Amino acid sequence: MLFSEDIIIRPLMTEKCVAMQDSEHKYAFQVTIAANKIQIKKAVEKLFNVEVKNVHTMNYLGKKVSRRVKRSRVEGKKSNWKKAIVTLKEGFDIDFFKDAM
């Protein structure tokens, strides 16, 4: 069983995500891979005290990475992750920076 605090890993604050927040009331989050849309919706509503209209999810495969250590090559892979774009109902807003000051 996943708890609300375990589902939402972090908000994504890219240029595109901030533009979506201002114009379309859409917020992007990195979420647990095992979470589904219903669990994500309930977690956002509980954590931020808002009403969610819609949830879209995307799965990203981890990239292959390689680097040189001294004279040898080390290859690995970044972990897979899931992104959720949450659309809020009209009149609701999330302020991520209100407690920062």
Please name the defining characteristics of this protein.
single chain, alpha+beta, Alpha-Beta Plaits, 101 residues, two-stranded antiparallel sheet, 4-stranded antiparallel beta sheet
Describe the structure.
By secondary structure, the protein is α+β, with helices and mostly antiparallel strands. The protein has a single domain (4-88), classed as RRM (RNA recognition motif) domain (Alpha-Beta Plaits), CATH 3.30.70. It has 3 helices and 6 strands. It has helices at 4-7, 15-24, 37-48; strands spanning 8-11, 26-31, 52-60, 64-69, 72-77, 81-88. The N and C termini lie far apart (34 Å).
- CATH domain fold name: Alpha-Beta Plaits
Low-confidence stretches: none
CATH level-two architecture: 2-Layer Sandwich
H/E element order: HEHEHEEEE
- The number of strands is 6
Structural class, by secondary structure, is alpha+beta
Radius of gyration: 17 Å
Largest sheet: 4 strands, antiparallel
Numbering strands along the chain, what is their spatial order in the largest sheet? 1-2-6-3
- How many domain modules? 1
* Proportion of residues in β-strands: 35-45%
Number of helices: 3
Give the overall average pLDDT: 91
CATH H-level superfamily title: RRM (RNA recognition motif) domain
